[in-house]
Amino acid sequence: MKILLTGSDGQLGHAVRHQVPAGVELIATSRRELDLADADACRAAVLNHRPDWVLNAGAYTAVDKAESEPELTLAVNGGAPRAFAEALLETGGRLLQLSTDFVFNGQQGTPYRPEQSRDPLGVYGATKAKGEEAVEQLLAVRGQGVILRTSWVMGPVGKNFALTMLRLHREREQIDVVADQVGCPTSTASLAAACWRVIAAMDTPAGPPAVLHWSDAGAASWYDVAMAVGELGLELGLLERMAAVNPITTADYPTPAERPSYSLLDCTVSRKALDLSPTHWRQTLRQLLEVVQ
């Protein structure tokens, strides 16, 4: 089986590369090899390599910066999935499109189910929703496309909240962290495992649903995660002391992009379809920190 991976240098791409199953030929592409803002290059990559799957882990993920770069964000998050889908219609391959909790507005107060309607708040969420629509319209109806939404992705490499908090605990006496946004952290290791399980499940008689949700188990605010990073950092010897973490509101920390206040994903159907047991986010956070250099 041949897999074309995008975003191979990103934090999820790193985890995907470290979990490649036996018998898989992985064509790992970073931004240097494949510019996702270039639709023609995306189509050409599929037509040249003719992969069985495109695992599109690359994206424009700078949520606040996206507000000032809407055209580039749309090209990467919306245009690339459409270009991949158009080429895969010709080659017969499949697409696994990674997406986000930001396609929802966060106002309902209960976990979002995969079949619920999208209602993004900002440019990032809106462009990821466009990518989802392309996959649904062109591939999912033919059994060639799966959308896998996730939330609050964190790993031992790259840029993410856990590593930022670890650094701030080392550098500061106090940290102010938003406590009124609720979601669930997802480790790159568990998300990569879910990606590979989706690909394997497509060849089973039932196959997975066209839209899946995956996060680690439990619920947390950003404040909860910041506290956990400090506590686990002390336990693991990564910190000599932890900073005082002060809970603040979203209004206290204005950002260019509006964020969903409640973005838990209902993963019940996904866990059953992929035959994967959930692990609590604090446990996967510990596993993440255990391998931080």
Please indicate the percent range of residues in DSSP E strands (runs of 2 or more).
Answer: 15-25%
Largest sheet: 6 strands, parallel
What's the CATH C level of the domain at 2-159 and 186-215 and 264-278?
A: Alpha Beta
- How many helices in DSSP terms? 10
Kindly provide the radius of gyration, computed on alpha-carbon positions and rounded to a whole number of angstroms. 19 Å
H/E element string? EHEHEHHEHEEHEEEHEEHEHH
Identify the CATH homologous superfamily of the domain at 2-159 and 186-215 and 264-278.
NAD(P)-binding Rossmann-like Domain
What does this structure look like?
With 293 residues, the protein is of the alpha/beta class. The chain has a domain of 203 residues: 3-Layer(aba) Sandwich (Rossmann fold), CATH 3.40.50. Helix content is 40%, strand content 16%. The chain has a 6-stranded parallel β-sheet, sandwiched between helices. The chain has a two-stranded parallel ribbon with strand order 6-9. It is globular. It starts with a strand and ends with a helix.
